[in-house]
Amino acid sequence: MSILSNSQGLLFSEISVEEAKELQTTTLQGWFxxxxxxxxxxxxxxxxxxxxxVVTHTVGDALLSSFPDAPSAVKAALEIxxxxxxxQKTPGMVVxxxxxxxxxxxxxxxxxxxxxxxxxxxxxxxxxKPGEILADQSLKDALGSSSTVKFTxxxxxxxxxxxxxxxxxxxxxxxxxxxxxxxxxxxxxPAASPQPPPRPAAAAPARPEPEVPAPxxxxxxxxxxxxALELAxxxxxxxxxxxxxxxxxxxxxxxxxxxxxxxxxVSRKHAKIVWQGDAPVLVxxxxxxxxxKFDSDGGAPQVCAERMALHGRGAIVLASLAGQSTxxxxxxxxxxxxx
Length: 339
Prior knowledge:
Layout: E1 3-19, H1 21-24, H2 31-50, E2 54-59, E3 62-67, H3 70-86, E4 93-109, E5 112-114, H4 116-127, E6 133-136, H5 137-143, E7 151-157, E8 160-165, H6 167-180, E9 229-235, E10 238-242, E11 249-252, E12 259-260, E13 271-276, E14 279-284, E15 291-294, E16 301-303, E17 307-309, E18 313-317, E19 331-338
Helix pairs in contact: 2-3, 3-6
C-alpha cells in the first residue's frame, strides 16, 4: 500500500566520468573511472544525509533523494557540486554530476517515492548537462522571495519551466575541472640543425643462404595471424564501427553513450559492449532487460541476463521480451566480421 506524503524536495543526480585520450590508452582504462565514480557516489550520499535527506533509489550512477523541504534539497545540490569539484585529484580525469530539483507531493511505497514531482525531476535530469543544476517552477516557488540562491531562466523543458541554479558557482567549478583535464607532458626539445647524411660504406657481397629442403612426405603450411574482428553497430540510420582498440562501447538513452537510443523505457546507461580477447560481449546493466536476436537462429530473441557474446549478424534489443517497443526505436543492429 502506498502512502501520499506531504510535499517534499526531490534531488535527482547522475555521475559521469570523463577521461582524457592519453588516459584512455593505458592498460588501466575504465579502472580509474570506476574508482572515481564510487567515490563520487559516497560524496553525494554524504551531502544528502547532511542536509536531512534520504537516498531512495539508486540505478547505476543515478541517485534519487528526497528532503523534508525545498531549501534542504537546494543546499544539498550546491554542496554536492562543491564537494565533487574539490575532490578532483586524478590528472586527465574529471568527475561531473548533473542534478535536477523538483518539489511536490509524493507517494511512498516500501521506502521508494513516486509521483508527478519525481517525473518532473527525471525530465529535467535528461536535459541537464554535466555540472549543471536544473530546477522546476514548483521548487523555485517553494523557496520564496527571501532565498539568496540565484535562479536563471533556462528554457521550457517539455511542459516544465526550468531554471539554472547557482550558475556563478558552476563557472568556478568548470574552471577547476578544466585544469584537472590537463595532462602533464615532458617538454619538447628544440629540433637540432640537420646534419649531412653519412657516406654509405661499401656493402659486402651477400652470401646465398643454403636451401633447406622440406622433410620428405610432409606438407609445408604457411601460418598467418588471425584477422582482427570489427563490430558494426547501426541505429537511427547511422553505422559506427569499432575494434578492440576502441575499448568499451556504451549504449543507452544518455547523450554520453556511443550509441544513444531514444526509446523512453531505455535506461540512461542501459548496457555496454566489452572485448573478451578479440570478441565483443554484451553486458546488461538495466533492470528493464536486454535481448539479442541472431540472424543465424532465425531472429529468435535470447534474453541477456548479464553477459552474451556477439557473433555474426543480428540485433540488440534494449528491453525485456515483454517490454519491446512496437516502433523498433529500442533496436540496435550489429554485425561482427573480420576487419
